[in-house]
Amino acid sequence: MANPPQNPVPKGNWRLTLRNLHRDFGFFAVGLTVIYALSGLAVNHIGQWDPSFSHFERLITVEQPLPAEEAAAVAAVKSELGIETEPLDVFTTNSTLVRYDIAVPGKSVQVRPDRDEIEVTEAGKDGSTVYPLGGALPEKDWDAAITALHRIGIGEEPTKVERVTIPVRDIDIIFDGRNLTVQDYKTGYDVYDVGQKPRFFLRTANWLHLNRGKAAWTYISDAYAIVLLFLAFSGMLMVRGKKGLLGRGGIFLLAGIAVPVVYLIVSGGP
Q1: How large is the C-alpha radius of gyration of the chain?
Q2: pTM as predicted
Q3: For the segment 107-134, what is each residue's pLDDT rounded down to a tens digit?
Q4: Residue ranges of the alpha helices (H) in the chain?
Q5: What are the residue boundaries of the structural domains of the chain, listed by start?
Q6: 189-198: strand order across its sheet
């Protein structure tokens, strides 16, 4: 059966032209809208997280000595952590750490202020339990031991408190976006690995969205803003009748305008 004849669109139909432009510019703006929308959501919650980078912090303990020569020590640490890039800088200093070895009935407790931890080993059991130290300790050894025990719920009096001083070689290894702090105890070493990684897509999207010092992107973002204005105004005008600006569309228009106005009134404004 032949299709029924369709009425030709009259020439000069500006609403049809507006609709076609709205459609084409709408497709054109999809990519930039995704970038600005996702970046806007991320940056809007900057008080709760870093929208561009994920941060990490970990402690690695290696039970083998480091070479005495600085370059060889750095190479050993890089090999242990699987790092292939060269550091930006390396600093080596010497210091002394303090550890408390505490004996209580049925338990041995080791307090490490440098690690901010308390390690408890129970007699007759394999393994140990590690608790956060939770802050500074008193200067006197006995008071420091009692304070640490009370923080982890041990009320018994210690039968022995020994303060152990440990000479340490500190090696700070600086990378781009990552710092390693190595504490070398001669028989082994700890590595405090602190750094950040760019968030997938969001790092790039935020870099574009915030537009800091990028002259060429300024013109692109200006053009995108003009396209958004066109989409907003063309959307108001391309539908007529009860669903257009003088009908249901006008109600939604007023509701959208009311949202920032009401918020400004309630919040008191800037």
Answers
A1: 33
A2: 0.69
A3: 999 999 988 999 999 998 989 999 999 9
A4: 14-28, 30-44, 70-81, 141-151, 202-210, 215-237, 248-267
A5: 19-52+200-259, 54-198
A6: 53-62, 189-198, 178-184, 160-175, 89-104, 107-112, 117-122, 129-132
